[in-house]
Amino acid sequence: MSSAPPEIHETVGHGPVADLAARRAYDQAWRQFAQQQSAEEFCGSWLVIQSHNIGGVSDGVVILLKPGTKSYAPVAFYPENPRDRMHLARVSERALQEGQGIVQPVEQGAELEAGGPRYQLAYPVRVDGEIRGVVGLEIAPRPEPRLQVAMRELQWGSSWLEVLLRRHADPVEAERQRLKLALDLVSTLLELPSLKESSTAFTTELASRLGCDRVTLGMLEGKRVRVAAVSHSPQFEKRANLLRAIERAMEESVDQAEMVVHPPEREGRMVVAQAHEALAHESQAGSAATFPLVHGDQVIGALTFERAAGQRFDAPSLELCAAVAAVAGPIIELKQGNEAGLPRLAGRSAKNLWQKVAGPGHPGWKLGALGVGALALFLAFTTGEFRVSADSTVEGVVQRAISAPINGFVTEAPLRAGDTVRQGQVIARLDDRDLRLERIRIESQREQFTKQFREAMGKRERAQVAIVSAQIAQAEAQLALVNEQLARTALAAPFDGLIVSGDLSQRLGAPVERGQVLFEVAPLADYRVVLHVDEREIAYVAEGQSGELTVTSMPGERFAFKVRSITPVNVAKEGRNLYRVEAALAQEARARLRPGMEGVGKISIDERKLVWIWTHGLTDWVRLWLWSHLP
């Protein structure tokens, strides 16, 4: 578009442009439009010009998005005299919500002119697909064809506002858009699994999107840079003179660890660019720019961009290329590391570590290396006590189980796990009503047999006397059994001790089956420690060794014990084979411990080198692995 005022072929205001004052205002708007200093001045002059071009405009407003917010505010009005423009606010809001141009007649109830109703127009202003503002106008009545022409004029004219918004874009937003474009370009590296294929696609995408004749990716190998990918060229001759010139240009940028551009984008920048000048001469390119690829604080390669003659790299293009190189460096390093073999990867890691330790700088790494060396010497010559650790449990030497003597129901349970009991003290009772009724029945049956016995004796019926005598004996045996069962419904402690398991206080009335274990009682004064030792450590354990126990409830206390026996039976638990080792507690420890306590026990073996103590598990695993895999 030209910045000079066009010849007026429409009407200004409500009639032809014949009034000298209107003509002067129109010319003044064009002058301000060409020399605008701010967004408000630009929008004001643009709105005057647009209103005169469309013709018949009685009200107009330009509304823009506030930078850094999600709210909109008016920045220009036509005419400038203050008046209520809420009617334009409504149609503008509708255009923002629907995201398209709006044409609607003035609401019913407003005064109608001779040509029909007045119209309200609104059109959103977009930048990069996002709505950044809206223009609202109210125009005089006109037929449908001229109404379409007015809407088209408004649509075309809004492109000037798009130019303004791009020119006055928020620096933060501009940086965000640049980073977004850089990420979009770099995403090509992630689309293909192979580094070679993805690098070729990446350089080709850069050349196409950034208007370059050629984009080349080079990787640092030792002290030289080798070409790894060339745009639009899946295959290339590595010994070609042009590629050697590109590699020298990359090395020039890598050696200086900064961007090199030829011709320079600004004078006075102290950068050596002889190789880039030679590259431009060799390739007949108009300009060349190279950016080092950095991962952490290490340069891993470079990106070289070449453009045709007459197409220099401007500041925005260089900023975008720099952003692409900054994002691509870590991704390329990651893909290269994933594809490298284990020896090569280990060599690179060792080299990087040695450079940090022996090279200049990195005082933290040097101090760390000295510390590791001192620690290694300390571990190699210092001895310590080797102890085997194992999960441990305190148990009674004897644990008596109290089982249900009959099938029945729980009626009383005054004691539970954790309570101390005396010998003969009732722990729980079972319901005995059925047994009492059974005893009454048997007693009455015995009385009946006794009566029959007397009658048979009086009649001297010997056979009957023998039968009844047997029945009486059977009844007395049944009665003795019932009495015994009644006596056993009271579950009593077999000795003084501690209930270590069992709680029927919450199961009153619940049924129990004969033989079901209800409680376990352990003596109070005689405990032992059971250690579950891993099979990898069991070879070091022997009877008579001493150790210390710490339980969860008393983590600050240590209780001495001595290994008494090692069972030859292992138990699988949580994927490990564990052996049961029993140990006797010292006499002074028994008063404070209780059966069921859990903790960690450590068995003292002997004195060993600290380095052996801390690494014998690893060395044993390596020996076993080598034995199982080597022929």
**Care to count the β-strands?**
26
CATH topology of the largest domain: Beta-Lactamase
Give the low-pLDDT segments. 1-18
- Summarize the main sheet: 6 strands, antiparallel, barrel
Total tally of structural domains = 4
Nearest-integer average pLDDT: 82
Tell me the β content: 25-35%
CATH architect. name of the largest domain: 2-Layer Sandwich
Tell me the overall shape. elongated
User: What helical percentage do the residues reach?
Assistant: 40-55%
State the CATH class of the largest domain: Alpha Beta
Strand and helix layout:
Elements: E1 11-12, E2 15-16, H1 20-34, H2 39-54, E3 57-65, E4 72-78, H3 86-98, E5 102-105, E6 119-127, E7 130-139, H4 144-167, H5 171-186, H6 188-191, H7 195-209, E8 214-221, E9 224-230, H8 241-256, E10 260-262, H9 274-283, E11 287-295, E12 298-307, H10 315-339, H11 342-358, H12 363-381, E13 383-396, E14 400-403, E15 408-412, E16 420-421, E17 426-430, H13 433-458, H14 462-488, E18 490-492, E19 497-501, E20 511-512, E21 517-523, E22 527-534, E23 546-551, E24 554-573, E25 576-585, E26 598-609, H15 610-629
Antiparallel strand pairs: 1-2, 3-4, 3-7, 5-6, 6-7, 8-9, 8-12, 10-11, 11-12, 13-22, 13-26, 14-21, 15-17, 15-20, 16-19, 17-18, 19-21, 22-25, 23-24, 23-26, 24-25
Plain-language structure description:
By secondary structure, the protein is an alpha+beta fold. The chain has 15 helices and 26 strands. The chain folds into 4 domains: 159 residues, 2-Layer Sandwich (Beta-Lactamase), CATH 3.30.450.40; 164 residues, 2-Layer Sandwich (Beta-Lactamase); 57 residues, Methane Monooxygenase Hydroxylase, Chain G, domain 1; 104 residues, Elongation Factor Tu (Ef-tu), domain 3. Helix content is 42%, strand content 29%. Helix 2 runs antiparallel to helix 4, helix 8 runs antiparallel to helix 9 and helix 13 packs antiparallel against helix 14. The two termini are 83 Å apart.
